[in-house]
Write a structure and sequence with these properties.
alpha/beta, 10 strands
Length: about 240
């Protein structure tokens, strides 16, 4: 995989330098001394290359002058994710068939920044952790685990059997985010961009919650909504 952008590469150098094979720096950029220093410390190859090569490898996306070859993203087993969440008081976030890499990247960025969250996604009808997702995540992937499961409903059931209280988000006819007292250990379920939570998933949750909005004709995308829910979870956990 390729990782591009100054902040994503710096976060990877801080948290998991062993996953980096080499780093390429645009010859037009001379303000990346910190990255060169960290690469030297960890024995990571650094190549200065023409701007045209960076742009070609990144398919003309903005790389901020830096691109890294890294290991493929490593998913974890669901059982390990849930047990670690119990032991360390983390909250698994189940994502029901998200298809937009921008949204998944935004969710990973939020969850990584806030801490105490992990992510569960289905193997089918869902975006995976791709290079595009990592670009948006801005290094958040280094501070959480992601599991891929063949059946999201079964994964939620397994979490419930382990003691997690499962909350799902809906757009109406549910307690407001500011009114619901959360129970821990907690699992959060977020719906897809267009359809929300599927009926089969709704039947498995313990409580529904909605984000209070004055302008009902407006809407939040799933990444923004997840940010608000996760912030409230952190606040109530404290």
């Amino acid at each position: 995989m390729k990782l591009y952008g100054k902040n994503p590469v710096i976060e990877r150098l801080k948290s998991n330098p062993k996953s980096i094979h080499r780093i390429m720096i645009d010859e037009n950029h001379i303000d990346l001394a910190y990255i060169r220093k960290k690469c030297n410390q960890h024995g990571i190859s650094v190549q200065t290359v023409p701007h045209s090569k960076i742009q070609r490898l990144a398919q003309n996306l903005n790389t901020q002058g830096i691109l890294a070859d890294i290991d493929d993203f490593a998913y974890v087993q669901l059982d390990d994710l849930l047990q670690n969440a119990l032991d360390k008081k983390r909250t698994p976030v189940f994502l029901d068939n998200l298809n937009d890499p921008q949204n998944l990247g935004g969710i990973i960025r939020t969850c990584g920044a806030l801490g105490f969250f992990d992510i569960v996604i289905p193997t089918t009808e869902s975006v995976s952790v791709t290079e595009s997702v990592l670009r948006v995540a801005c290094g958040g992937e280094n501070y959480l685990s992601v599991a891929k499961v063949s059946n999201l409903g079964n994964a939620i059931e397994k979490a419930k059997k382990m003691g997690f209280w499962i909350v799902g988000t809906v757009v109406e006819d549910a307690p407001s985010l500011t009114e619901l007292t959360l129970q821990f250990p907690l699992g959060l379920v977020m719906g897809s961009e267009e359809k929300g939570l599927r009926d089969i998933i709704l039947k498995k949750i313990d409580a529904q919650v909605m984000i209070p909005m004055k302008n009902q004709r407006m809407s939040l995308n799933v990444a923004h909504a997840t940010s608000m829910l996760c912030y409230e979870i952190v606040s109530q956990k404290k």
